[in-house]
Amino acid sequence: MRAEAQLDKVYMPFSGRNVAVIGAGIIGISSALYLKRAGLDVTVVDPLPPGSATSYGNAGMVRHDCNVPVAMPGMLRQVPGWLLNPLGPLVLRPSYALKAAPWLLQWIRAGRMDRVNSAADALCKLHEGNLACYRDLIGGDTFETLIREVGGIQIWESEASGLSDRITAEINRRQGVVTEPLSRRDLERILPGISGIAKRGLLYPNNAHTTNPHRLVTAIAERLRQAGGIFATERVLKIIPREGGGYTLMTNTANRKADIVVIAAGAWSNRLLEPLGAGLPLETERGYHLMLPTPSIELPMPLQMKNRGFALSPMEHGLRLAGTVEIAGLEAAPDERRSEILLKHARALFPDLKGGQPTIWMGYRPSLPDSVPAIGEVPKYRCLYIATGHGHTGMIGGGSTGRLLAELVIGNRPYIDPAPYSPTRF
Ligand SMILES: Cc1cc2nc3c(=O)[nH]c(=O)nc-3n(C[C@H](O)[C@H](O)[C@H](O)COP(=O)(O)OP(=O)(O)OC[C@H]3O[C@@H](n4cnc5c(N)ncnc54)[C@H](O)[C@@H]3O)c2cc1C
After folding, report:
1. In the predicted model, what is the mean pLDDT of residues 406-425?
2. 395 C-alpha to center of ligand 1: Å?
3. Which atom in ligand 1 lies closest to the alpha carbon of residue 28?
4. HSE of 266 in the Cβ direction (CA atoms, 13 Å)?
5. How many Cα neighbours within 13 Å face the side chain of 84?
6. Are 385 and 262 in contact (CB under 8 A)?
C-alpha cells in the first residue's frame, strides 16, 4: 500500500519533447536510447565518443548477485591497515585527504547496519532487471556476442570469515541469492594452476559479464544512432535555466536549448550541479586496470578477491586485471604503480601468469557514500534530471537505470519504486 502511494506520487507528465543527455557513458547512453524509444528528440552531448571514460575499462561485470554496498560495519577498523599496505585495496592521497574528509565521514556513517540493509535492497531492486534491459537495448543477437552468463567466483585467502563476509552471507540469504561454496579442491579443479593462497571460494552461478564493456556501450550508441538520436561532440560548460521552462546548455562550441536535461556525466556531474546549488556528496573512487593481451591462462569466468580489492575478467581481447580504490580526486595524475600492483596480485594467485605487453588504464568511479545511485529530478529544478553515483556497479545497473530514468522523465509509472534513488535523500 505504501509503495503504491509512492509510485503514484512520482507520476508527473513531462513537458516538451527535446531532451539533452549530458554524458555518453553506460548511464547516459542507456537512458538516451530508452528516451528515444519513448518518442522524444534526444541529443547526447559529450566531448568524447560513447563509452570512452569509466565505462571503457571496468571489470565488465553486468550482473553480480551480491548486492552489498561498499561501506560496511567494522570496515573502519580495517582502513588503517589498508592505507599502510602499499599493495592494499584502498589508498588516500595525503594531499587530497582534507578535501575528501566530508565524503569519507558520510561513507563511514553509511556503514551502519540499518543503512547497509536498505542500500543492499535498493541495489538488489535496481540490479535485478539489468540483463533484461541490455537484451532489450541491443537485441538478442548482439547480446549473445557481448554477454556471458557463466557465473563468477569470489576467492578467500583464509578459512575464517570476517564480519563483512557474515553480513554479506545474511544479505544474500535474505535476498534469495544462489551461491555454492567451493573448497580448495573445487578451486583446483575449476581453475588449474591456482596457487596455495586460495583457500576457499564462493560461486555465484547467476553472475554475468561482458567480454568488452566498451563494445557494449558502443552497441547501445549504435542503436540510438539508428533510431535517430543525435550526438554532439561538445563539453557542457554550464546549464542555464530559461525563463518559462527548459534550459540552455552552454557548451564549448554552441548554446543548445533543451526542454529536458539529463545529467549523466559520471564523476564530473558535480561540476554542472554545484553552480546550480544542487551538488551531491559525490566523490571519485579511482580504479585501475592492466590488460594482458595474450594471457597464458584461460579463465572460465571472472574471479574476485575482496581483500586485495581486485578482479580478473576474461575479455575478448585478453585478460583484464581491474580494481583497487584510490581517493585522489579528478585532477591528480594516475599512479601507475596501482596498475602494476594488480599484476602482483594476479601472480600471487597464478604464479605462472604471463600475457604479452600489458596496457594500463585508470577510470573514475562516480561514488555516493551509500553506494546507491541518484536517479531522478534534481530538487528545485523542473525537468532537470540526474543519473549518477553508480560507484562500483554502473555496468550492473546501467541498463536498468536507463529504463527507470526514462520512465520518470516521460511520467510513466516506474517499473520499480524510485524512492530509494531519489536525489533528495541527501
Ligand atoms: C577499475 C574499475 C572496475 C570496475 N568494474 C566494474 C564492474 O565490473 N561492473 C560494474 O558494474 N561497474 C564497474 N566499475 C564501475 C563502472 O565502470 C562505473 O560505475 C560506470 O562506468 C559509470 O558510468 P557513467 O556513465 O556514470 O560514467 P562514465 O562512463 O565516466 O561517463 C561519463 C561521461 O560524461 C562525460 N562528461 C563529463 N563531463 C561532461 C561535460 N561537462 N559535458 C559533456 N560530457 C561530460 C564524460 O566525457 C564521460 O564520457 C568499475 C570501475 C573501475 C574504475
Report:
1. 95
2. 9
3. 25
4. 30
5. 5
6. yes
User: Does the reported pTM lie above 0.85?
Assistant: yes
Is residue 28 in contact with ligand 1, taking CB distance under 6 Å? yes
Cell of 259: 526542454
> Quick count: other Cβ atoms within 10 Å of Cβ 52?
16
Which residues are CB-contacts of 80 (< 8 A; sequence separation ≥ 6)? none
List the grid coordinates of 127: 540490479
Q: Is 116 in the pocket of ligand 1 (CB under 6 A)?
A: no
Partners of residue 328 on adjacent β-strands: none
What does the pLDDT look like over 89-128, one tens digit per residue?
888 888 898 999 999 999 999 999 999 999 999 999 999 9
* Domain layout of the chain by residue ranges: 2-425
**How many angstroms is it from 202 CA to the middle of ligand 1?**
28
Ligand 1, atom nearest to 271 Cα: 41
CATH C-level class of 2-425: alpha beta
The strand pairing partners of 262, in sequence order, are 21, 385
Look-up: residue for cell 581486485? 310
Place of cell 537505470: 401
* pLDDT score of 76 more than 80: no
Residue 265 Cβ contacting ligand 1 at under 6 Å: yes
Are the C-beta atoms of 424 and 278 separated by less than 8 Å?
no
Q: What is the largest CA-CA distance in the chain?
A: 68
Question: How many Å lie between the centroid of ligand 1 and the Cα of residue 28?
Answer: 10
Pocket test for ligand 1, best of 365, 368, 421 (most atoms within 8 A of CB): 365
According to DSSP, the residues that pair with 203 across neighbouring strands are 153, 180
Give burial (CB, 10 Å; 0-12/13-18/19+) of 169. Answer: middle
389 lines ligand 1 (CB under 6 A): no
- Find the radius of gyration of the CA atoms of the chain: 21
Pocket test for ligand 1, best of 392, 393, 396, 400 (most atoms within 8 A of CB): 392
